[in-house]
Amino acid sequence: MKCPFCQHEDTQVLDTRVSEEGDAVRRRRRCAKCDKRFTTYERIELSMPVIVKKNGSRTEYASDKLRGSLMLALRKRPVSAEAVDDAVAAIEESLLTSGQREVDTGFVGELVMVQLKRLDKIAYIRFASVYKNFEDLAEFQDAIAEVGNDRKPRK
């Protein structure tokens, strides 16, 4: 670690602690040349994969686009904002843990469908009809039957 004062490359760690938030390591250091002290922080750097669109173009992951798609499918449905936040977090975690540097929109779409199916069956059908590009009534009926098979029996 270079000293920020004299640029000397030999520094000594005097103290190491985990930050109050628990998301970083705080180190107090001393320069061997000028004897000045300074603090450094080590944090994990996580990056979302790049999204590859159907036409082959690439774009940065955008959380607001994902949330917008979910909100559009969930429009006028009784789903709390907290549940939407949890769904977005679950999708983002899946993207991060996939370990891939690039993912196609189909992968993201499947993750969205899993979360919508869990949140609200009607929103799932809405999203699936656009995402899977339904062309006739039979495809709608198949999707409805699929959701119906997952339904818990009423008491």
Automatic annotation (TrEMBL):
<feature type="zinc finger region">
    <location>
        <begin position="3"/>
        <end position="34"/>
    </location>
</feature>
<keyword id="KW-0547">Nucleotide-binding</keyword>
<dbReference type="Pfam" id="PF03477">
    <property type="entry name" value="ATP-cone"/>
</dbReference>
<dbReference type="InterPro" id="IPR055173">
    <property type="entry name" value="NrdR-like_N"/>
</dbReference>
<keyword id="KW-0238">DNA-binding</keyword>
<dbReference type="GO" id="GO:0003677">
    <property type="term" value="F:DNA binding"/>
</dbReference>
<keyword id="KW-0863">Zinc-finger</keyword>
<dbReference type="GO" id="GO:0005524">
    <property type="term" value="F:ATP binding"/>
</dbReference>
<keyword id="KW-0067">ATP-binding</keyword>
<dbReference type="Pfam" id="PF22811">
    <property type="entry name" value="Zn_ribbon_NrdR"/>
</dbReference>
<protein>
    <recommendedName>
        <fullName>Transcriptional repressor NrdR</fullName>
    </recommendedName>
</protein>
<dbReference type="InterPro" id="IPR005144">
    <property type="entry name" value="ATP-cone_dom"/>
</dbReference>
<keyword id="KW-0678">Repressor</keyword>
<keyword id="KW-0862">Zinc</keyword>
<keyword id="KW-0479">Metal-binding</keyword>
<comment type="similarity">
    <text>Belongs to the NrdR family.</text>
</comment>
<dbReference type="InterPro" id="IPR003796">
    <property type="entry name" value="RNR_NrdR-like"/>
</dbReference>
<keyword id="KW-0804">Transcription</keyword>
<comment type="function">
    <text>Negatively regulates transcription of bacterial ribonucleotide reductase nrd genes and operons by binding to NrdR-boxes.</text>
</comment>
<dbReference type="GO" id="GO:0008270">
    <property type="term" value="F:zinc ion binding"/>
</dbReference>
<feature type="domain" description="ATP-cone">
    <location>
        <begin position="49"/>
        <end position="139"/>
    </location>
</feature>
<keyword id="KW-0805">Transcription regulation</keyword>
<dbReference type="GO" id="GO:0045892">
    <property type="term" value="P:negative regulation of DNA-templated transcription"/>
</dbReference>
